[in-house]
Amino acid sequence: MARLVFMGRLEDVAGMGEMAVQAGPVEQVLAGLDPALAVELLGEKVRMALNGKLLTDMGGVVLVEGDELAFLPPVSGG
Amino acid sequence: MNWRFCLRSAVAEVRLALSPFDPAAEIAGFNARHPHAGGIVTFLGQVRAGGGVEALELQHYAPMTLPGMEELARIAQERWPVEGLLIVHRSGVMVPGDAIVLVCAAARHRRDAFAAADFAMDHLKSESWFWKREKAAQGWRWIEPRPEDHEDLSRWG
Fold it and tell me: Where are the domains of chain A?
C-alpha cells in the first residue's frame, strides 16, 4: 500500500487527512478516487510532494509500497 | 574544512513549536547569547484579538516544514552577515494573544538585522509549508494567501 496525504482545505474536501491506496501509477490511483476529489487534487495551485520532495511533474510517477504522496494547496503561514 | 560555512551554519536556531512558547523568554535568551551584536531585531506575530476570530490553527507537514524553515535560515544567513538568527514557528490550535511566529536577527549593524528578519518573515508568510484556518461563529475557514503576501515576496528578487 501507499499513502495519500491531504493538507489544508484538501483535508476537508477528502473528508480525511490521509488515505491508504494501492501502489501503482499516480494516474491510476487518482482515477480510483471520487472524481470531485480528484479534480481538486489536480488543481492548478496544488503542488505535490513524494516522500517529502516536491514533484515538478507527476507524469510517469509510480507509487511503490510505503510511498507517501502529499497534496499541498497554497500555503499561508505566520 | 570550510570555516566560513561552519561559523555561519552554527548561528541559526530554527524550531517548530507544537505547543505554546514564551516569546519574552525566547527573546531574552537570544539577546543574552549575542552580546557582541550591535543590533538585534525581533519580530513577533501573534493571534490578533477581535474580528470575531475565536481560534487560529496552523497545520504543518512534518517531512517538509522544518527542513524548509532551516533552508530559509541558511539563505538569510548567506545574504546578510548576521551573528545570530532565531526562528520559532507554532503549529497547532492557538487563541487570541498566542504567539504564532518569532524571528530574532542579531548583527553587527542594524540594517542587516532588519533585512534578515524582514526576509525571513516574508518567506515564512507565503512560502513555508503551513496552512492556516480561522474559527469564527460560523465555524472553521481556511485562509488563502493574499496577493500582498506574494508582492512582499517579490521584493527579494
Answer: 2-64
Categorize the per-residue pLDDT at A61 as very low, low, confident or very high, splitting at 50, 70 and 90: very high
Q: Which of A7, A12, A77 sits opposite B124 (nearest CB)?
A: A77
In a domain, B81, yes or no: yes
A-chain residue closest to B67, CA distance: A52
Using CA atoms, how far apart are residues B21 and B44, in angstroms rounded to an integer?
12
- Please name the member of A5, A7, A75 whose beta carbon is closest to the beta carbon of B126: A75
Q: What is the pLDDT of residues B49-77, one digit of tens each?
A: 988 999 999 999 999 999 999 999 999 99
Is-contact B57 B92, C-beta < 8 A?
yes
* CATH, residue B92: 3.90.1170.40
Which residue range(s) make up the domain with B76?
Answer: 11-148
Nearest to A75 by CA among B96, B143, B54: B143
